[in-house]
Predict the structure of C2H2-type domain-containing protein.
Amino acid sequence: MVVQTERDDATWYECENCGLLFDEKSDASEHEQRCDDTEPSYIQ
Ligand SMILES: [Zn+2]
């Protein structure tokens, strides 16, 4: 799941699976779809 978060006066989108931050929601959503299928230990 992608979580919207405010940091440094900017909006970020965080992957709940691995904690990666994205500045584009579309990037976060795309990552999250792949992240769901992979082991948590594998971080791109
Ligand atoms: Zn992820």
The mean pLDDT is 87. The beta strands are 2-7, 10-15, 21-22. The pocket of zinc ion is lined by residues 15, 17-18, 20, 31-32, 35 (CB under 6 Å). The chain is about 25% helix and 30% strand.
